[in-house]
Amino acid sequence: MTEFVANPSATATLAYQINASNTSCGYYIDGTDGLTHGYYRDPNGTIHSPIDPVGSTGTILFGNNDRNLIVGRYSDSAGATHGILFIPRTNRFLVYDFPGATFTSLNGIQESNQQAIVGRYTVPPLSSTMVSSCSWCAPQLAV
Prior knowledge:
Shape: globular
Number of helices: 0
Number of domains: 1
Largest sheet: 4 strands, antiparallel
Oligomer: single chain
Helix content: under 10%
């Protein structure tokens, strides 16, 4: 087991997944502002943080595959939550919003070439969250 802190000001660091190349991802809670920020730790132990889309008021990264594609979610100042796919090698975010949803989260990404993503979303006026195999976002994963 390896212990690390994603950022010196972090009050908590949470790791969600580690892939076959020993790259892990997760989020930390910043002790200066209380916001969550994403991070990933590469195989040599270098921590890359914060990993936040522009306009984020809180980012959580949940999963990464062996191609080092990272999925998660972020909230914005309007209170909406968006699913994200982060591509470390290009430092690029792809944002996914299920049609009509106020909350979208991408929670896992498949290891194979099928590029399936598991996510969840909430469409008003429903109060419960639905689970989907995110077929609505997978075609855009040709990265």
